[in-house]
Design a protein that fits this description.
With about 230 residues, the protein is mainly alpha-helical. Helix content is about 50%, strand content about 10%. The protein has a single domain, classed as minor pseudopilin epsh fold (3-Layer(bab) Sandwich), CATH 3.55.40. Strands 2-1-3 form a 3-stranded antiparallel sheet, sandwiched between helices. Helix 2 (about 50-75) runs antiparallel to helix 4 (about 95-115) and helix 5 (about 125-135) crosses helix 6. Bound molecules: manganese (II) ion (MN).
Length: about 230
C-alpha cells in the first residue's frame, strides 16, 4: 500500500537524523518517531461534508502539531517504545504530553484513511453482515453511532471497534483512543469520527449533529472492511 510505504520511508529518515544528532553526545538507540501520513485526497475532496479550509487547518496545523509534540516528547523524555501500539498499551505510564499527542497523531492518521470522496452509503459483504448482526440494521448502527458522537461531552472521538470478535460503539475523551490502557472503552478501531470543535466549527458552528449526519457521506467502508479482516 502506497501510504504505508511512504510512511515507513519517512520514519527511517526521521529516525536517522534524530539519531545522528543524538550520537554527538551519547550513544543511544534510534528513537521511534510518529509520522503524519500524506492526506489521501485533495483538501477540498470531501466537500460539502468537510470544507477545504477546515481540512487544511485540521491537517496542516492541528494534526501536524500532535505529530511534532509527540516526537519532541519522545526525545525529551527518552521514551523507548518502538511501535505505536506500545504507546497505547502503556498510556497510563506516559506524561500528559506524550499521551495526548501520541493519541492525536494516531487518531488523525486513522481518521484521514477512513474517509474518502464519494464514500458513505451502507457497507457491503462481511462488514454489512457484522453490522447487521451486532446492531440489528445499518439504520440502527447509524443511530447508535450518532448517539455516541453527540453525547461525547466536549472534545473527543466516537468509535466503532472490534473487541474479542464483537463490534461495539463508544467514545473517548480528548485524544484518547480505545487501544489505550487508560480507556474505559476498549477495542481495535474500525471507524472513528473526530468530534472536537476544530473538526467542524467553521462550517457547522455549534451544529455537531449536522456535521455527523453529513460525515456519513464520506465514510470509506473499504478501509473499514479491510480493518475488520
Ligand atoms: Mn482533530
Amino acid at each position: 500500500m502506497k501510504v504505508t510505504l511512504a510512511a515507513t520511508v519517512g520514519t527511517s529518515l526521521l529516525a536517522e537524523s534524530a539519531c545522528a544528532a543524538a550520537t554527538q553526545t551519547q550513544s543511544r538507540s534510534h528513537a521511534f518517531q510518529f509520522i503524519q501520513i500524506p492526506l489521501p485526497y485533495a483538501k477540498e475532496a470531501l466537500e460539502p461534508s468537510i470544507d477545504a479550509m477546515t481540512m487544511d487547518i485540521h491537517y496542516s496545523k492541528h494534526h501536524a502539531a500532535y505529530i511534532k509534540n509527540v516526537n519532541d516528547a519522545i526525545v525529551a523524555e527518552n521514551i523507548s517504545y518502538q511501535a505505536e501500539a506500545d504507546f497505547f498499551a502503556n498510556a497510563s505510564k506516559l506524561s500528559a504530553k506524550a499521551r495526548n499527542n501520541s493519541g492525536g497523531a494516531w487518531n488523525h492518521n486513522f481518521f484521514w484513511m477512513v474517509m474518502k470522496p464519494n464514500g458513505g452509503g451502507p457497507p457491503a459483504g462481511k462488514l454489512s453482515d457484522a453490522i447487521n448482526g451486532s446492531f440489528g440494521s445499518f439504520e440502527k448502527f447509524k443511530e447508535q453511532f450518532t448517539q455516541a458522537a453527540m453525547t461525547r461531552f466536549g472534545s473527543g472521538w466516537a468509535w466503532l471497534v472490534i473487541d474479542t470478535g464483537k463490534l461495539k460503539i463508544g467514545s473517548t475523551p480528548n485524544q484518547d483512543n480505545p487501544m489505550m490502557d487508560v480507556s474505559d472503552f476498549k477495542g481495535t478501531p474500525l471507524l472513528g469520527i473526530d468530534v472536537w470543535e476544530h473538526a467542524y466549527y467553521l462550517k457547522y458552528q455549534n451544529k455537531r449533529n449536522e456535521y455527523v449526519a453529513s460525515w456519513f457521506n464520506v465514510i470509506n467502508w473499504d478501509e473499514v472492511a479491510k480493518r475488520l479482516g
